[in-house]
Amino acid sequence: MARYSIFALARNALRRHRDWPLAWRSPEPKAAYDAIIVGGGGHGLATAYYLAKRHGITNVAVLEKGWIGGGNTGRNTTIVRSNYLHDESAGIYDHALKLWEGLSQELNFNVMFSARGVINLAHDEHEARELRRRVFANQLAGVDAEWLTPLQLKEFCPILNVDPGMRYPVLGGALQRRAGTARHDAVAWGYARGADGRGVDIIQNCEVTGFDIRDGQVRGVRTTRGEIAAPKVGVVAAGHSSVLAEMAGLRLPIQSHPLQALVSEPVKPVMPTVVMSNAVHAYMSQSDKGELVIGAGIDSYNSYAQRGSLPVIEETIQAVVELFPITSRLKMMRQWAGIVDVCPDASPIIGLTPVEGLYFNCGWGTGGFKATPGSGHVFAHTIARDEPHAINAPFTLDRFHSGTLVAEHGAAAVAH
Ligand code: FAD
Ligand code: PYC
Description:
Strand content: 15-25%
Bound molecules: flavin-adenine dinucleotide, pyrrole-2-carboxylate
CATH architecture of the domain at 115-179 and 255-342: 2-Layer Sandwich
Oligomer: single chain
Structural class: alpha/beta
Strand order of the largest sheet: 5-6-4-14-15-16-13-17
Mean pLDDT: 96
Number of strands: 19
Low-confidence stretches: none
Shape: globular
Distance between the termini: 40 Å
């Protein structure tokens, strides 16, 4: 693959980059499809890809109101890990992590997955106990996890401040070595190209404005580009999930919040891993371009405006400067926000709804990027077979009636 890519690059450079094949088509919507996916983020595109590849359902449209990957997929800080507390979560997040490990080969598209490790810091005895409990739970569930002392942390990430005199001293941390980062846009583009190549229509600038539901069965959607019929509709709209649910007469237990991030000017490699701190609501990694990628906790109010408030980011920067003193004179280049869909138990909803043929995949909140391949894979199964895959069976909408919650606020980490 690498040799092919080098020759292809050289050939295209000699042609002065003219006549590049399009990575995906831009078709007009058809009047009807076998399945429609609402939302062209990573999860929606992955769902369409696996519907075509694993289930042979290729007469599929992905309807995206803006451009693919322009929602949270292109706004997130790209952390991939599977160190959640409960077995149900280990089931889905580690399924995703295993898919990440072979995703570039699967898609023949470099998603730049980098297993550089993710560290979760503990700043007090309570947090240290909770994190050690999670390390043990992960080990029992077959998910790699280990506990590091402050000195071991310093060895793993030399720019981390472990001075015991800090305002929030570092008492230790949990490390998942298989965890890391991936290139967010490439994930959307790779799945889009793979789905398009199998016949899926990716239709951008096409907002879904309503559902055609008759006799308890979905028949299609209304869009800004006309009505489109389909007996199966999967909704994967992240922060706008409740808005779409309301169009279908459903009520989801989801709150939409802004979540912010920012990047510094590029610097030489200084940060070999990803470090997250729940207590001070800050985390940092370094992108391949050299920018330090920094993220905050959620803004506490509900909003659909893709921007956040200054006090939240100020607090995060204070914490980052204390944790990594070498950042104190760095210039920040860009700040942005996405709208995240937070469930009361900080776990997703993936499955059937009371409307026949209508499926929802949402509630990933601040942590769905890491789940992208696994989520798409099991959601495609759910849509194709009209029943959940064993992996997403615990994540029903019904759990908010039955009380079988999967409480993951601790593992959902820094942003909560
Ligand atoms: P999206 O990428 O948001 O896709 C949904 C799409 O639906 C959007 O493109 C939207 O335009 C479209 N849509 C909405 N309404 C309609 C409509 N009516 N008609 C048609 N289309 C519609 N997760 C991690 O695991 N690790 C991280 O490090 C991480 N960091 C984050 C940092 C920030 C700042 C943010 C905001 C989020 C972060 N997340 C992280 C969370 C992660 O980004 C999301 O959980 C994940 O990207 C959700 O993917 P998605 O495909 O479901 O959503
Ligand atoms: O879920 O790992 C995560 C995460 C990091 C930053 C935002 N979400």
